[in-house]
Amino acid sequence: MLIDCKKVLSLIFLSPSNMTFSEKDQIYLKSKKLSQKEVETQLEQLHQGTQMLHIKRPATVDDGIVRLSGEEQFYYVNLFDRVANGMEILRFTPASGAASRMFKHLMDPENPKNKALVDEFISRIGDFAFSDLIIKSSDKQRVISQVLSEEGLNYEQLPKALIHFHRYDDHIRTAFEEQFVEASNYALQQAQLNFHFTISEDHQPEYDRTWSSIKPLLEKMLGCNITVNYSYQHSSTDTVSISTDGKLVRQESGEILLRPGGHGALISNLNQLEADIVFMKNIDNVAREEYHEEVMQYKKVLAGYLIEYREQVYEILSWCETGFMTDKQKEIVRDFTLKHLGVDLKNASVDKINKLYDRPIRVCGMVRNEGKAGGGPFWVDYKGMESLQIVEAAQFDDSQKELLEKSTHFNPVDIICSVRDHHGKKYNLHDYIDQSAYFIADKSYQGQEIKVLERPGLWNGGMAHWNTIFIEVPVETFFPVKTVNDLLQVAHSGI
Q: Which of 250, 280, 382, 426 is the most buried (most CB within 10 A)?
């Protein structure tokens, strides 16, 4: 194999250890709450490339994925209903995504590749909830302009959360509004609903206007108080980029180019929140109201399962605190661990048992794979111990592609989290990230190809060292909207 010596030498001389930062650079980084050491680490990661995981096999039913009977589901629903009222429950929803990606095909309507989607959009324009807000026209360009432009609905500039998703007899609802209605169905005993949305700071005024206009009606309709809080992706989680020849990318002003670090950066937002249980889902995965009851049932199943599992974990941790376990207790722990985590703790010390269980917990719904995009559930080897992980396609190398193809389920981002220990103290979630599970993506900046660094994904490496349970849920609880045309599906259009 021929080696490009010039390229190797250029990467050596441009490596972080050989790179100097000017005083101006250091002032700029400090203003973004980034240290020089952090940037040097990022540059090392960019030069090293994506680190592939040691993936052993897909998680399947009875090998990492729990399939519950109807009787078991009924039990966990009732368990949640009994105890939820005494708990502090929070709904955490990443909602900073721009709607522009939903309308990508409408921004280039003459492209032959977009013809089918554009034709469907125009021919069925009346089936979209937002069509009530525009003037009907047979002119394709006029219709598209009314939807996307600032003179019309300005959807090109809005976050996905504020797009009108659903039409009812006398009103229409945005994805943002529908989230509250759905959540009320699995929190009927609560007088207070708590929501946290991560958003773009630029969109804060639109959220404030929308919330102030719908809050009184929603609270009256749902019969409870609703608290809504927001946070932005912290600038301290931004990342640097390099050019194809390994140079640090800068803006025209000379300042270092910093980009948002991907959804994995939101672990910092989650880390600042306090709750007994956190329900996590994506902003677009919300259907019309007539689907909420079934969704509600499975949310309660997941939460009830977590509550029971956590109670048993807390008991194990209380045993560990004594520094001694009886043979009977060790046998109980071994059986419990084999069943839930697939780890054999034969002859394990009390300290090892404590380290295994003293960490955050997540219970994740998994949907049977029917060709939808998304990460999947896999068994991954980390330093000789297998654990359940949500793995993205980008984390597979060529030799592992066959494992990806054998995957039976995928991740719809339906996650219930427990972030407090058995004494009620919140974990520092940064301690449970696999920092080596970063992503490197190819992007374009000012006409040049660059490599950008994304932090470990929120539910991927960002939660790699949590204890994880996967439970099968039906595809009927999954309603993603990746393009605007997805709103024509019956779960959104009602048609």
A: 280
Q: How many CB atoms lie within 10 A of CB 180?
A: 23
The structure tokens listed for 101 are 């990606």
Rounded Cα–Cα distance for residues 139 and 97 (Å): 29
Selecting from 3.90.550.10, 3.40.190.10, 3.20.20.100, 3.40.190.150, what CATH number does the domain 12-98+158-493 have?
3.90.550.10
Report the alpha-carbon distance of residue 371 to residue 184 in Å, rounded: 31
CA 337 to chain centre: 27
Element (H, E) at 453: strand 448-454
The CB density around residue 325, as the number of other CB atoms within 10 Å, is: 18
* pTM of structure: 0.91
Per-residue model confidence as pLDDT tens digits over 379-419: 999 888 999 999 998 888 888 888 888 899 999 999 999 99
Max CA pair span of the chain? 78
Residue owning tokens 């000379």: 254
**CA-closest candidate to residue 477, choices 285, 304, 282:** 285
